[in-house]
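PROTEIN DESIGN WORKSHEET
SECTION A - STRUCTURE
LENGTH: 416
C-ALPHA CELLS:
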C-alpha cells in the first residue's frame, strides 16, 4: 500500500507539472506538444484515485489530510472545475488548474517531509502498525454517508452544466446561482451578425434588456416562431403557466419594437428605408405543415399529456407509456431533423438575403439552435468580435416556498 500511495503522489505531481508546461507552451507558442502525455497521465491518475479513496477507509496508516484533497481535486478537475469553468478556460487564467495541482502536490510532499523528518514520501516506519481499525472504517463510512450525497448533487449539477454547454456551444451556462445566456457578435467588413441564445422562460428584466438592446438603423431581426396555418396542432403550446408558477416571464411576452416585413422583401432592391427608428423584423421560421407526420404527432402528444395536467409525474408516466409504443430511433431522428435542423436551414436561408440590404442582423433564437447557426456564420468568414452573458434565471429569486406549498398534500378542509 505504501508503494501504491507514493506512486499516486508522484504521478499527481508529474501530471500537474507536465500540464503546467503544456499550458505555458499553448499560451505563448501555440504549441501542444505535451498534450498526449498530459492526457494519458491525467487518465492514469483519475483511475488510481478510485482505489486509493477506498483504501483510505480500510488502511488507517494513509494520511487522509494528504490524500482526500488530492482525490477531490482530481474529481473536480474531471468536471472542468465547475462552476469556475468559464474562468479557468480563459487564456489569462488557463494556468490556474495545473498550478493548483502542483501546489497541492508540493504542500503534501512538504508536510510528509516535516512530519517524518526523513523523506517527502511515505516511509516504512508509518506502516509498521496494523492497517485495519474498526474505528477508522466506521468514521470513514459515517463521513461518506454525509458527504457523498452532497458530492453526488454537486457532480450531477456540474455534469448537467457541461452537457448543456456542449450541446449549445456555450450559449447556455448553468451556474451555481442561475442560468446564463450568451450573446455573441460576429463581424466581417461592415456587416455584423448578432446571435442571442434564448430560453423559453426567464426573468422579465432579461427579456426587456435584450429587446431594448437592439440598435436602430440598417438592422433586421430574424425572429423565431413556428406558425400553424393549417391548424394541425390540437393545442397551442404556451409556457405562460409554468412561468407564472416560477415567478418568471415567458419568451412569448417579449416583443421587439420595429417594422414587420415579409421574408421576400429583405433582399429586394425596392425595399423602402425604415423611417420609424426601429429595426425591421421578419419571421424566419417554418410552418407546422413543413414537419413530418411523426413530428406533428409527437408535438400533439406532448401537448395532450403535459399542458393541462395537474400532475407532472402522472403526465410523465402517461407520456412515457405513449412513447414506448410510438417512438423508435428512426422517429427520434425525424423529430430532430424537423425541430432543429430544418429550422436552422430556414433561418440561415433568410440570413443570406438579410445580408444583402442590412448591416446588422440579429438572430434571437433558442439556444439549442445556436450551435448550428454559429457554424454557418463562421463558415461565411465572420469572426467573433464581442460576447457577453445575461442572467435569465436567478435561482435565489425563485419562489421555493410557493412551489413546496403547491406540492404539499391538502387536508380535507383545504380541499374544499
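SECTION B - SEQUENCE
RESIDUE ASSIGNMENT:
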Amino acid at each position: 500500500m505504501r508503494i501504491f500511495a507514493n506512486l499516486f503522489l508522484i504521478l499527481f505531481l508529474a501530471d500537474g507539472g507536465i500540464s503546467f508546461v503544456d499550458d505555458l507552451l499553448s499560451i505563448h507558442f501555440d504549441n501542444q506538444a505535451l498534450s498526449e502525455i498530459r492526457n494519458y497521465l491525467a487518465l492514469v491518475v483519475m483511475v488510481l484515485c478510485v482505489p486509493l479513496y477506498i483504501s483510505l477507509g480500510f488502511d488507517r496508516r494513509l494520511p487522509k489530510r494528504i490524500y482526500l484533497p488530492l482525490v477531490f481535486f482530481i474529481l473536480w478537475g474531471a468536471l472542468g472545475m465547475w462552476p469556475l469553468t468559464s474562468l479557468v478556460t480563459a487564456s489569462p487564467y488557463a494556468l490556474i488548474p495545473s498550478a493548483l495541482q502542483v501546489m497541492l502536490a508540493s504542500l503534501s510532499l512538504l508536510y510528509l517531509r516535516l512530519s517524518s523528518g526523513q523523506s517527502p514520501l511515505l516511509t516504512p516506519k508509518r506502516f509498521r502498525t496494523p492497517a485495519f481499525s474498526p474505528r477508522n472504517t466506521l468514521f470513514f463510512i459515517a463521513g461518506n454517508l454525509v458527504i457523498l450525497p452532497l458530492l453526488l448533487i454537486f457532480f450531477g449539477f456540474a455534469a448537467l452544466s457541461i452537457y448543456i454547454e456542449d450541446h449549445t456551444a456555450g450559449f447556455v451556462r448553468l451556474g451555481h446561482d442561475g442560468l446564463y445566456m450568451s450573446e455573441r457578435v460576429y463581424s466581417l467588413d461592415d456587416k455584423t451578425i448578432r446571435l442571442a441564445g434564448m430560453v423559453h422562460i426567464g426573468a422579465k428584466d432579461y427579456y426587456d434588456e435584450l429587446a431594448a438592446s437592439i440598435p436602430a438603423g440598417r438592422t433586421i431581426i430574424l425572429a423565431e416562431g413556428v406558425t400553424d396555418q393549417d391548424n394541425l396542432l390540437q393545442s397551442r403550446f404556451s409556457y405562460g403557466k409554468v412561468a407564472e408558477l416560477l415567478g418568471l416571464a415567458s419568451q412569448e411576452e417579449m416583443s421587439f419594437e420595429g417594422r414587420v416585413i415579409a421574408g421576400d422583401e429583405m433582399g429586394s432592391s425596392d425595399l423602402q428605408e425604415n423611417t420609424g427608428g426601429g429595426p425591421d423584423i421578419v419571421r424566419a421560421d417554418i410552418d407546422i405543415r413543413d414537419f413530418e407526420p411523426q413530428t406533428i404527432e409527437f408535438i400533439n402528444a406532448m401537448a395532450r399529456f403535459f399542458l393541462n395536467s395537474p400532475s407532472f409525474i402522472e403526465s410523465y408516466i402517461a407520456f412515457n407509456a405513449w412513447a414506448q409504443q410510438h417512438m423508435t430511433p428512426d422517429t427520434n431522428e425525424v423529430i430532430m431533423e424537423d425541430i432543429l435542423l430544418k429550422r436552422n436551414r430556414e433561418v440561415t436561408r433568410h440570413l443570406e438575403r438579410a445580408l444583402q440590404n442590412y448591416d446588422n442582423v440579429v438572430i434571437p433564437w433558442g439556444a439549442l439552435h445556436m450551435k448550428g447557426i454559429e457554424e454557418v456564420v463562421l463558415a461565411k468568414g465572420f469572426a467573433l468580435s464581442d460576447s457577453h452573458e445575461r442572467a435569465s434565471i436567478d435561482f435565489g429569486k425563485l419562489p421555493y416556498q410557493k412551489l413546496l406549498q403547491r406540492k404539499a398534500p391538502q387536508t380535507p378542509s383545504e380541499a374544499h
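SECTION C - NOTES
The CA atoms of residues 196 and 210 lie 9 Å apart.
Residues 172-407 form one domain.
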